Amino acid sequence: MLLAAGLAGASAAAAVAQDAPRQLSTPPSVADTVRQSVATPAPAPAQPAPAQVAPPQQAPQPRYRIGLKSGQVYAADDVEMRQPVIGRSYLLLNGQQRFDLDQIKFYQDETGHYVRTTLPGSRREATLRREKQGRISTYSITSQSWSPGGFGGGPWGYGPYGYGMGRYGFGSPWGYGGYPYGGGYRTVKTEYFSKDGGPIQDMNLRNLSVALSDNPGSSELLRDAARLKRISTAGYIVGGGMLVAGMLNTFSGNAQRISPLVFISVPVLLVPTFVSGSQANKLKQAVQMYNYSGAATR
What we know:
With 298 residues, the chain is an alpha+beta fold. The chain has helices at residues 2-19, 30-39, 205-211, 216-251, 260-296; strands at residues 64-68, 73-76, 79-82, 90-93, 97-100, 104-109, 112-118, 125-132, 136-147, 184-195, 201-202.
């Protein structure tokens, strides 16, 4: 009995010692060490950061394309037109490859897109710059010509062919870029078109009326252009007749002063100048409407 009582007392003392706060000078017991190891788990090892994979770098695409009549298409970063004084003109690609213009069907450079084609009524090829692309694609060629001024000369510098669209333009009394009182060089911009990649045609009222006949809105604009053309023609006829009559009255008989018909003819001859600009705008609007309507129905 004494042995059992002793064991019971030892167990109670151990329990009280565990519940009581431990003194700072007292070394930790086995139970404290076990509790700390359970309460504080070991930190997990750090995961390595995923490596950043750089996207593959693509080589820059060449800026320009050159198509040959044989069907081959070349790409280049630099295209230069060479026009030597002696010899034929050619294209130089990247400063190395050379192609004669006779081999070229189309090419691009920093100034735009160009095509090599035969002009209407001609057997020689010319280089045209593409202005607009669509069902109706428009092209132009710019040239300089000498204008002597007037009908063979004269103080007024009157001439029927000026800046405009079509083979001979719509005309203006003094041309475009020249001096009104005499001859000089003038810049003439002639425009063409093609429908659905077909042959090149002169951009004039007659050809466009046929090409755009399947679009009512474009046809209406072309009728307005035809009316303006009649006004322009009437201005040339009336103004020219008044000018001729005034000059005859001035230099015939004993006339002491210039005939008033000469002065009256000047504003009449100016009417076609303003009308021709409106007529050109009507043609361009008709082409734009046709291309827009075609794109909207696709």
